[in-house]
Amino acid sequence: HYSFFPGEPRWPAGTKSLTYAFDPNENLDETTKQVFANAFNQWSKVTTITFSETTSFSTADIKIGFYSGDHGDGEAFDGVLGTLAHAFSPTDGRFHLDKAEDWVVSGDVTESTLSNAVDLESVAVHEIGHLLGLGHSSVEEAIMYPTISSKTRKVELVNDDIDGIQQLY
Ligand code: TQI
Ligand code: ZN
Ligand code: ZN
């Protein structure tokens, strides 16, 4: 079953659109940006919130960046595997990914020759759930389940994820 963060923080009632931006220090290609767009779309399909990219990092609701090790928020990344990414609860908006991972942005993670390959879209869908206010779920098939097997792709919301987010929005 789904859960929320303590106090059930969420984006304000009536929020219709949220903007996201990539750290200007990144030079992400269009393929990578499309992976994030697809991940946001999973959640906009089941809520009344739409997501759009903006180039203004400072004013974006959701701020995305890839960082390594200690990156100044007290939650240092740990190199290959372990913590892959983290996102803060509403309405903070910070969404950080560990630069050290072998991120798979296109192609099939299950066929990667890299034993540490991590599917970017799978992690992004999960972290966006946190950004919107979902905690972890006890349902193994759910996007918000707290663990994922390596070299697995899991990008489709299941009823448990949908029920959870529709309680919030
Ligand atoms: N990052 C953890 C996560 O997002 C960070 C975390 C630990 C956390 N405890 C938390 C976040 C409690 C909110 C509330 O869950 S992670 C997965 C999964 C991670 C793990 O790097 O371990 C995914 C990130 F579910 F697959 F194991 C993304 Cl999809
Ligand atoms: Zn961080
Ligand atoms: Zn999580």
List the defining traits of the structure above.
22% helix; alpha/beta; single chain; binds zinc ion; 169 residues; binds ligand TQI; 7 strands; Collagenase (Catalytic Domain); two-stranded parallel sheet
Task: Tell me what you see in this structure.
The structure is a single chain. The chain has 3 helices and 7 strands. With 169 residues, the protein is an alpha/beta fold. The protein has one domain: Collagenase (Catalytic Domain) (3-Layer(aba) Sandwich). A 5-stranded mixed beta sheet has the order 2-1-3-5-4, covered by helices on one side. The protein is globular, with a radius of gyration of 15 Å. The two termini are 17 Å apart. Bound molecules: ligand TQI and zinc ion (2 copies). One zinc ion binds next to loops.
Concise structural overview:
The protein is 22% helix and 18% strand. The protein is of the alpha/beta class. The protein has a 5-stranded mixed beta sheet, with helices on one face. A two-stranded parallel ribbon has the order 6-7.
